[in-house]
Amino acid sequence: MTTKPAIGFCGLGAMGFGMATHLVSQSYPVTGYDVYAPTLSRFASAGGTPSSSLSESAKDKAFYICMVATAAQAEQALFGTDGIVAALPQNAVLYLTSTVPSSYAQSVSKKLEDIGRSDVYFIDAPVSGGAIRAANGTLSIMAGASGAAFEKGKWLLDELTAPGKLFIVDGGVGAGSNMKMVHQVLAAIHIISVSEAFGFAAGLGLNGKEVRDHVIGGKAWSFMFENRSVRTLAEDYFPGASAVTIILKDTGIITSMANLVDFPVPLCATAEQLYITGLNKDYGANDDAGLVRLWTTEPVASIQSSRSDDEKKAKLELVSDLLIGIHLVAAAEGVSFAKHLGVSLGQYYELCVEAAGGSAVFKEQAPKMIDILEGKQNEGEASLKSYRDALKAVVTEARNQRIPLHLGNGALSLMEQAGKEGDFTSLLKLYSVE
Amino acid sequence: MTTKPAIGFCGLGAMGFGMATHLVSQSYPVTGYDVYAPTLSRFASAGGTPSSSLSESAKDKAFYICMVATAAQAEQALFGTDGIVAALPQNAVLYLTSTVPSSYAQSVSKKLEDIGRSDVYFIDAPVSGGAIRAANGTLSIMAGASGAAFEKGKWLLDELTAPGKLFIVDGGVGAGSNMKMVHQVLAAIHIISVSEAFGFAAGLGLNGKEVRDHVIGGKAWSFMFENRSVRTLAEDYFPGASAVTIILKDTGIITSMANLVDFPVPLCATAEQLYITGLNKDYGANDDAGLVRLWTTEPVASIQSSRSDDEKKAKLELVSDLLIGIHLVAAAEGVSFAKHLGVSLGQYYELCVEAAGGSAVFKEQAPKMIDILEGKQNEGEASLKSYRDALKAVVTEARNQRIPLHLGNGALSLMEQAGKEGDFTSLLKLYSVE
After folding, report:
1. Chain A hits for B402, Cβ within 8 Å
2. Which in A7, A418, A427, B357 has the greatest CB count within 10 A?
3. DSSP conformational letter for A342
4. Measured between alpha carbons, how far is B410 from A101 in angstroms, rounded to an integer?
5. How far is CA B304 from CA A140, B55, B196, B207, B208, in A?
6. What is the C-alpha to C-alpha distance for residues A167 and A161, in angstroms, rounded to an integer?
7. Cα-to-chain-centroid distance, residue A335
8. What is the nearest CA distance from A309 to chain B, expressed in angstroms?
């Protein structure tokens, strides 16, 4: 029997716990640390070795994964008193899998050098896919590092990812975080669109279960809708699996970077205001699926519809059209920002389409957008008219029923800006700032 | 002593009551009707003649003013059972001073013809200026009608307006409502920007009175800020002077028309979602100044700032910069929509600058925008850079302090869309759809 290498881990939240226990299930000895003691007991029950301090979790570990929530937490965990880096052995591989600004990931490299620990192989490796895929070892990971670091440490990323879902991003440390950020453009918009869709449906008197059945498998599908709607229907928000504070943090990384480089991200900015509104209503620690409460306090799974089947079908179509319109503009915003930042669009597509940012619209239409941005002949139909007309009907119904559609109206305004004869090219031009 | 002509009036709300009692003060015999009985008693105390029915209020009145809230109410009052039109004498002048879609004003003309009452001189004459100017007879009025109707009925509009504030709009019936609608683009955005500014200031720990003192008279001034902030500071929302439902109705006229003609009005659409959100929080009947409660429940006049004078001054500048950025994009949205609808831009400017849509930014910068839209040589400095940089600082501070800025972010996104070297021309191009 081969002895597998010991792994240090800190940050046993929804994602980190899944990742760490997956490694345990693969017979790795994993020593885990978290500030929240009950999590450590759960981790011990799952076969992990709980640690009482960061330095202890890092001692003698040639491989260490840091999966805390924010850059500020990472800074403290890595370099603070009794922290990880000081305790790591020479030539250890350190993985930062949190979603952080690329500039922060780069600052870690620099700091390692500054404090005389350039022996540490640092890999910038944010993840995507949600808690279930974390626990199954089938995440998507986008990683940036030196060739030497990958040579020594790529194997562990393979353990955490599904086949073909480890994306080695060109550009070294920071490139992984950059890719994650542009992926999160889709995630940030899609997550709140789930609540907006259920809020709209509730205002139309539709039962949430019927909404889910209608959306799943159709053109309005998104990973986030399929994933979050389970918790929306169950009102499983306390704490649920993914807190509002997490996506708010990720969205802030996007909008801050966009401001820095003077790039417009109108739908992300709209999403951010809704996350902040949720935070201010004390929903911050709750699951982001609970943001449907910005629209309705009635449990959406309990709504009794008195509509005829035909009426119901027509209204369900409106809900789908809302999501489709939002997803289309989200795709344009995502690919355009990726292009602006010099991210490989082919890799971006390949990554997003099966990660948490995926949607049916993205899968079908993003390739056309990428062709346009790369100056290739665009073969496919790419008029906005059908999308715009459908979204206008949605927005009109919402206006009549007094249901706020922040993203729906934002997406429609952009389609209107693209002009009466607007197509994907004119939509993308709205993001082509120089 | 000359006997002045008798005037019929219906709709004695905040505006209508002021208009009707102003006419009473000018020695006109005014017979007024309202569905709300206590208002009729107040009207009698002010020297008016209360009427117990619409038809009675219209009987023998050669001049009749209808100032109800909505097109639906107007339709009922004019043509419903026991309504106004049937009771009007031959060749009466009928003024519709409510804010309604231009298509509705045109439908009134048509209906008068259809029912054999084309003898009635109909004047489409929406007003602007607020309750105080209504009561002083110093409103702005934008009127469309036939030459014959104006010949017979213009004098009464003169009585209600300040010198130079009666705008006869080319295009006949509907043209007045059209002008009012594009004026309301500014009003709709400015009204909610007052609450967003006070909400932002509250989040920064600034006292509302100091905010008002800082804004009034400076570059961040708007009519709406000066007017609404009195009620914001006094929490005079119940019912206050201008209900959320009124500006929501006006905003819906704008966004519906924009959808109809495929024109983007992103800031108006953002404003509309906030009005709907307020309505859903049961603020509909309250004054629109009370929408500051979407940001904070603390009375803004009671906030005790612990900041140093220098800090306070810097934060107050941020509040002003927020308003200035919003007002600039509002001006672009207003003049662009006016242009798109074929409204005279010179008249639009002249009207708005001293009506409820006025702002210091509009006064200074709209002429440059109009020159650009009219293809004239633009002499003035018209870079967006200083506006964009200032608004970026605002949005960054709001992000850090977790304060939602729906309009501020919307305005910034548009400035970013205008490009790094963006100027007024590139901002206006965002609205130049074909």
Report:
1. 276, 279-280
2. B357
3. T
4. 23
5. 49, 55, 19, 6, 10
6. 10
7. 15
8. 28
Which residues of chain A have a CB within 8 Å of the CB of B409? 269-270, 272-273
Residue B312 pLDDT > 70, yes or no? yes
Of A169, A199, A164, the C-alpha closest to A353 is A164
> How much is the ipTM here?
0.93
CB A320 within 8 A of CB A387: no
| Token code pair at residue B298 | 């603390």
Provide the whole-model pTM: 0.94
Residue A67 has pLDDT above 70, yes or no: yes
Place of tokens 């542009």: A182
**Is cis: bond before B239, omega within 30 of 0?**
yes
Buried/exposed B288-297: b ≥16 CB within 10 Å, e otherwise: bbbbbbbbbe
Please, which residues have CB within 8 angstroms of residue A99's CB and are 6 or more apart in sequence? A126, A177, A180, A181, A184, A249, A250, A253
Q: Does the N-terminal peptide bond of residue A239 adopt cis geometry, omega within 30 degrees of 0?
A: yes
Name which of B412, B413, B433 to mutate to probe chain A: the one with the most chain A Cβ atoms within 10 A of its Cβ.
B413
- Please, what are the domains in chain A? 7-173 (3.40.50.720), 182-429 (1.10.1040.10)
Give how far B310 is from chain A: nearest CA, Å.
26
Cβ separation of A406 and B273 shorter than 8 Å? yes
Is B29 exposed, middle or buried (CB count within 10 Å of its CB: 0-12, 13-18, 19+)?
middle
- The sign one gets for the Cα dihedral A384, A390, A394, A397 is positive
Q: List, as one string, the DSSP characters of B317-347.
A: HHHHHHHHHHHHHHHHHHHHHHHHTT--HHH
Fill in the amino acid letter for A383.
Answer: S
Handedness of CA B212, B331, B415, A255 (dihedral sign): positive
Band the pLDDT of A432: cuts 50, 70, 90. confident
Angle, helices A385-401/A406-417, rounded to nearest 10 degrees: 140
Q: Check if the beta carbon of residue A413 is closer than 8 Å to that of residue B265.
A: yes
Given this model, what pLDDT does residue A217 score? 87
